[in-house]
Write a structure and sequence with these properties.
Elements lengths: L14 E3 L2 E2 L1 E3 L5 E8 L9 E12 L5 E9 L2 E11 L2 E16 L2 E6 L27 E2 L8 E9 L7 E12 L1
Antiparallel strand pairs: 1-12, 2-4, 3-12, 4-11, 5-8, 5-12, 6-7, 6-11, 8-9, 9-10
């Protein structure tokens, strides 16, 4: 016999969203590697959206190249990695990366690194984003209109085009609202 515990909170209800993924290879164009569409009037106050992806990456172009990553909510962005140097190396990077967005009234606050920690990619420094001193205000998207479609993206942009062995490719992603 099991006894029900009074006032025990029920687990959160997860709503799966359907992200699309793309490659950012041999280009200096800012590329949306993960895109998630949130339908109008479906993101309740106090609720979160988690976006995570599995990435394969490499820079074997013959020289170091910087890469910039941004999390975007519609047209507003937060820089997660700003021109981080990716050393020339034949090693393929394999990593899970993501971020969580939480609605607080008409704002959205981002916490990045909702997946595994450590180095962002092989041969780079750890991803620090806006967590440095006095930068917490840059982690907020303000005055969001939740009555319209919201587009959440993770973008990647190489500082220079290398060759076919320079890539940051999202192999798969998932996104959940809870």
């Amino acid at each position: 016999m099991f006894q029900q515990i009074a006032n025990f909170p029920s687990p959160p209800i997860l709503t799966s969203l359907s992200p699309t993924v793309a490659n950012c290879a041999n280009t200096t164009t800012e590329t949306a590697v993960i895109t998630v569409i949130v339908p109008p009037n479906t993101w309740d106050n106090g609720k979160s959206i988690a976006v995570n992806g599995y990435f394969e990456s490499k820079n074997n172009s013959g020289g170091d190249i910087g890469i910039t990553l941004k999390a975007k909510l519609n047209s507003s962005s937060v820089t997660l990695a700003n021109a981080v140097t990716v050393d020339d190396d034949a090693t393929m990077g394999k990593s899970f990366r993501g971020f969580t967005l939480r609605r607080i009234n008409n704002d959205v606050v981002i916490a990045f690194g909702s997946s595994t920690g450590g180095d962002f990619m092989p041969n780079t420094t750890a991803m620090s984003g806006g967590y440095s001193t006095n930068q917490f205000s840059t982690n907020i998207y303000t005055s969001v209109d939740f009555t319209t479609t919201i587009t959440v993206t993770l973008t990647a942009q190489w500082a220079s085009a290398g060759d076919a062995t320079t890539f940051f490719n999202c192999i798969f992603a998932d996104a959940f609202k809870y």
